[in-house]
Amino acid sequence: MKYRYIEKNRERYPVKLMCRVFGITCSAYYGWKRRQPSLRAQANQALIAHIRRIHKLSRKTYGSPRVYYALKKQGISCSRNRVARLMRQNNLKGQRKYRKVRTTDSNHALPVAENVLNREFSAEKPDQKWVADITYIPTDEGWLYLAGVLDLYSRKIVGWAMSHLIDADLVEKGLRMVCYQRQPDGGLLHHSDRGSQYACHQIRNLLAANHTQVSMCRKANCWDNAVMESFWGTLKNEWVHHCKYKTRAEAKTDIFGYIEGF
Questions:
Q1: CA triplet 170, 118, 213: central angle to 5 degrees?
Q2: Cα distances (angstroms) measured from residue 196 to each of 22, 104, 169
Q3: How far apart are CA 109 and CA 200, in angstroms?
Q4: CATH for 129-260?
Q5: How many CA atoms lie within 13 A of 180 on its CB side?
Q6: What distances in angstroms separate CA 185 from CA 59, 120, 177, one per listed residue?
Q7: Could you give the angle at which helices 201-209 and 168-182 cross, rounded to 10 degrees?
Q8: pLDDT digits (tens, 9 = 90+) for 140-188
Q9: What backbone torsions phi and psi does residue 125 show, to the nearest 5 degrees?
Q10: Taking CA atoms, which of 27, 101, 127, 160 is between 20 and 30 Å from 240?
């Protein structure tokens, strides 16, 4: 207690005077000071505890940028460079795995819409622009296919469906889910790849019934649907590729938790 008082008031009073008042030697005070971590070191210890917690909750997939934004969202003040340095010093890294499977079959005679979206990935209000795509989830039972619809205003998944079949019914279930929940009132643009699941009459009729304009990517150009591709990449790298699903049912439960919760 005496040493802490001296340390706190060393700018106001001479150290030698305070030591004499408390009946201790200056060498004892300086010895205590050398053994104590600095205030900065103590702050770093507290911060790295928060960083470890966030990193663990992300299944060790978050790198320093996403850890920094998570800290900021929780009201913890720090700089991005400081987070990166502490993670590097403590060997905390974002773990990523990559795997690619083709899910788009554009070799068909169905009508293909123009690329109306034209990479304008911003929206002024909800339900103005939706982007859609299909991805795959590996399980021991075989592939589980996931169709998603993302609102470009909120950048959130607003409709989705999962099935062991990659067909138009899968896409329709996801679209009916979002149309029922959001009730778009016209002026909506729906953008997807030019695969047969989206180009078929089944889906085009559903979109027309909801007064929705259709837009499709150019052939073999994933950048035309970059926001949806980015979400799939985040889902895979942060979640799916760090799991081994025994059944499709297990994968469905876990993916539901990611989309609706995490």
A1: 50
A2: 85, 8, 12
A3: 10
A4: 3.30.420.10
A5: 8
A6: 40, 21, 15
A7: 10
A8: 999 999 999 999 999 999 999 999 999 999 999 999 999 999 998 878 9
A9: -155, 165
A10: 127
Give the phi and the psi of residue 192 in degrees, each rounded to 5: -150, 180
CB 67 within 8 A of CB 82: no
Inter-axis angle of helices 39-57 and 80-89, nearest 10: 80
The ranges assigned to domains in the chain are 2-35, 39-89, 129-260
Sign of CA dihedral 260, 236, 139, 57: negative
pTM equals 0.64
The string over 246-256, giving b where at least 16 C-beta atoms fall within 10 Å of a residue's C-beta and e elsewhere, is: eebebbbebbe
Query: Phi-psi region for residue 127, left (φ > 0), alpha (ψ -120 to 50) or beta?
Result: left
Tokens found for residue 83: 């987070």
